[in-house]
Each structure stands twice: as structure tokens, then as C-alpha cells.
Amino acid sequence: xxxxxxxxxxxxxxxxxxMAEAMSGNPALQRYRDGEEPTMTFGLVRMVDGKTSEIAASxxxxxxxxxxIKVK
Length: 72
Known about the structure:
With 72 residues, the chain is an alpha+beta fold.
């Protein structure tokens, strides 16, 4: 049992190190790690008169059937 616990702790430390390394290269992930909330923008791709157009949206913008919601 102790050997299993040691192996599990070793794996956890390795995964923690890998996650920290992965997050250090991406500024957006670094801000999230530092406690900042991620910023999101919303858009809708909507078909109007046979043409697609993308419009800016917020969390409370009405969505119509056929709309595609984009989150960045």
C-alpha cells in the first residue's frame, strides 16, 4: 500500500509540473492561474437574406433558430 501511495504521489507531482509548464507558455492561461477571470466575447453567425453575417452579441442577445454561437 505504501508503494502504491508513493507511486501515486510521484505521478501527481509529475502532472502538476507538466501543467505548470504548459500554462507558463500561454499568457491567457497564466492570467487565469493568477486568479483573473478569463474574458470572453460572443458573436452570432446569422443567415440574413441568403447571406451569412457575424454580429457581436452578449450573454443576453436573443438567439434565433439557425444561429451559430461563437465564443472567443
